[in-house]
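FAQ

Q: What does a record look like?
A: Structure on top, sequence underneath. For example:
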């Protein structure tokens, strides 16, 4: 969150300080009529503090402050002496004193409109930093009433609501902040999307987690962002094995796989689904990118076993594809076309896969959502952005969010690879 500078506020108070010496009072009496009402006792006690502040003599100013505070009787007196107290507290690094002074200035009712927002912001900041979230909530709520579409205030209010455990109340403020920032023509901070995603994820809100994960990936399609978005998606949804495999495929496409566990899960799922070539390719990528420890599959018995099972099957499996492709095209429905399309997809033969998916959809008898999802994947890998978007846009039901993630990838392309790390 961005808060008003306490130094800037102190400077504003110093520049706005009124002359309260007896001599100045005589000169300004007419000008101040109806504007400020300083008591005689305060005009006598305050000048010593003002003079010391102007000279940078904080010790003397602090010593004289109690007398000025005791002499303050009118609202104008109280506002002025609270301003002095604030300047002294800031120069003394006295956060509690600064907070008390801000409260006193606001309570006086004499703060000019141009300073009220800064005072409220300082109050909200201090309360938030000291864990007084109810006070921070009240201050930020008042600020939001004064400036109802200020994105910084809205995102700060969301942070406070989250700290208070009011996650459902926090998220609409994030949405408002994002829309306000976009309306102003500025980029939305990455942290705002991350904040909303974290709130949703921690509160176990799958729909909202997906919503902000999609927004984050769309705005900042880096490998590390893809990983955060897709991992939270996996964690907050009960994905069936096929959907989980398709999610891991997207993580692979966006360079978001990291660590031996990811590669093991992916390779094991691919092998179990009947895609030995994909299983071996994933393991090979993990070792070559140093994501699997020591660049050697031998360091992982589980991965070594998967590769040992997958590798001997690849040649015969690929050799069967042309004949199976022909039979699928001649079949009465699209079931075989979908299966062979999936086999092509596993081998990275994307044009062939896309062609058979179209056959499967045209012939029917298959789950159109799955067929269009896989068609979109194949087209995205082939660089056919609009065609991929069209196919993915037809996906509804449980696969819709995953299709939306794939549509972002289709539009944005692959993300830069994340730095290589050792196995987790």
């Amino acid at each position: 969150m961005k808060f008003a500078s306490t130094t800037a506020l102190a400077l504003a108070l110093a520049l706005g300080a009124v002359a309260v010496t007896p001599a100045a009072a005589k000169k300004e009496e007419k000008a101040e009529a109806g504007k400020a009402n300083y008591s005689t006792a305060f005009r006598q006690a305050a000048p010593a503090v003002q003079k010391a502040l102007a000279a940078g003599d904080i010790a003397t100013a602090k010593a004289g402050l109690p007398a000025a505070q005791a002499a303050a009787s009118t609202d104008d007196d109280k506002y002025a002496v609270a301003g002095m107290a604030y300047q002294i507290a800031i120069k003394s690094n006295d956060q509690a004193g600064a907070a008390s002074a801000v409260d006193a200035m606001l309570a006086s009712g004499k703060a000019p409109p141009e300073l009220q927002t800064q005072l409220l912001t300082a109050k909200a900041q201090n309360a938030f930093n000291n864990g007084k979230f109810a006070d921070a909530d009240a201050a930020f709520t008042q600020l939001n009433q004064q400036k109802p579409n200020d994105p910084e205030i809205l995102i700060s209010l969301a942070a406070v609501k989250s700290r208070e455990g009011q996650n459902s109340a926090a998220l609409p403020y994030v949405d408002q902040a994002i829309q306000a920032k976009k309306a102003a023509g500025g980029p939305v901070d990455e942290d705002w999307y991350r904040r909303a995603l974290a709130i949703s994820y921690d509160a176990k809100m799958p729909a909202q987690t997906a919503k902000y994960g999609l927004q984050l990936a769309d705005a900042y399609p880096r490998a590390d962002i893809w990983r955060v978005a897709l991992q939270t998606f996996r964690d907050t949804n009960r994905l069936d094995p096929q959907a989980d495999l398709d999610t891991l495929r997207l993580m692979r496409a966006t360079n978001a796989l990291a660590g031996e566990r990811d590669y093991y899960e992916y390779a094991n799922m691919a092998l179990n689904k009947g895609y030995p070539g994909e299983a071996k390719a994933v393991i090979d990528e993990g070792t070559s990118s140093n994501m699997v420890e020591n660049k050697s599959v031998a360091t992982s018995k589980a991965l070594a076993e998967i590769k040992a099972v997958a590798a001997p099957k690849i040649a015969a499996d690929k050799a069967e594809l042309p004949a199976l492709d022909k039979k699928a095209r001649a079949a009465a429905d699209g079931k075989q076309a979908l299966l062979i399309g999936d086999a092509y997809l596993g081998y990275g033969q994307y044009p062939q896969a896309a062609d058979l998916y179209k056959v499967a959809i045209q012939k029917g008898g298959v789950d159109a959502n799955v067929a269009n999802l896989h068609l979109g994947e194949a087209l995205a890998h082939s660089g056919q952005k609009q065609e991929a978007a069209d196919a993915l846009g037809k996906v509804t039901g449980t696969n819709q969010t995953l299709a939306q993630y794939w549509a972002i990838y289709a539009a944005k392309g692959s993300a830069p690879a994340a730095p290589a790390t050792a196995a987790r």
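Q: Is there anything notable about this one?
A: The two ends are 33 Å apart (CA to CA).
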